Amino acid sequence: MAKKILLSGIQPSGKPHIGNYFGMMKQMVDFQDDYDVYAFIVDYHALKSVQDAKSMKGNIIAVLLDFLAIGLDPKKALLYKQSDISEHTELAWIFDTITTMPYLMRAHAFKDAEAKNKEIDVGSFNYPMLMAADILLYDPDIIPVGADQKQHIEIARDTAEKFNRIYGDTFKLPEAMIMKEVAVVPGTDGRKMSKSYNNTIPLFAEYEEIKKCVMSIVTDSGEGIPKNVYAIHNLLRPASELLPLYESKIGKYKELKELLIEDLEKFIAPLRERRKEFEKDIPKALTILKAGGEKAKKIASAKMEEVRGKIGVNVY
Ligand code: TYM
């Protein structure tokens, strides 16, 4: 029996953090034996924030090394980048023609920009259409993401339904996989961990950097258990172990932070070491990405042939 397909992507827009890891990247590795995993780098999406060729190249290679370092096995999973498969942007255009402006104006990212009186670029406005194409081209079953991407998956489903209604059954409706405990990994200030809040713990941080991040975790002298420290610690150890420990150290914030530093170091050090190994042979890593792109291209172009047939442009 064919395996189900699990697919997700990440922007090459800087260093990934442990929020990206627990919210999405880990699932790609954990499920690679049981699912056909498609992991991709959404470089065209990242163009809205990375507008310098050198940074873009560096970021793409960095995410590639990150995926390999966390244990994504190219023999089991397909690893590719969006820009290698022009069908993504082609299908996004077709989706544009069946989507209304008011519908996209309901997207959170658009509403946030509007609320801040920011002038939104067309690419950001249209972001969910390219994301719908990223997904629907491959008929995946599940999409592991953090809670911040929930609406985007709903838009992809709506778009599939709309297309199917107009042109006949073509796309499978994907399901988001949002793990409750890691749906919103909190940052060092208790808000969602995010590069834009400057509250992250980088996934491959060196020991000194881990220390600095943990020491900056915001605590409130009135709280018994420092909730921001606990919430991050809880990613690494279950509540059954952690609660008694925290209860035995009420008020001892520094000691608890030191324990968290040690636990983070234990978790990150092996990943960091593996990443350094992959870094020694970047051409080899790039071969993996290129081969992944070639395989993904075959799947995507077969799907696009079907789409072209459905919309009636295949006259030859
Ligand atoms: P991106 O690059 O912002 O983030 C990658 C993944 O990390 C998750 N994430 C988090 N999860 C839990 N807690 C957090 N604090 C946290 N911060 C980030 C995100 O939810 C995401 O799953 N639009 C996507 C990329 C994309 C995509 C796709 C994903 C483009 N096309 C198709 C899936 C399928 C994005 O910007 O993710």
User: Would you tell me the structural class of the helices and strands?
Assistant: mainly alpha
Instruction: Name the CATH class of the largest domain.
Output: Alpha Beta
Say which CATH homologous superfamily of the largest domain is assigned: HUPs
Classify the beta-strand content into a percent band.
5-15%
Please count the helical segments. Answer: 13
Ligand inventory: tryptophanyl-5'AMP
Report the biggest beta sheet as strand number plus sense, adding barrel if it closes.
Answer: 3 strands, parallel
Number of strands: 5
Q: How do the helices and strands follow one another from N- to C-terminus?
A: EHEHHEHHHHEHEHHHHH
Share of helix, binned = 40-55%
Identify low-pLDDT runs: none
How many domains comprise the coordinates? Answer: 2
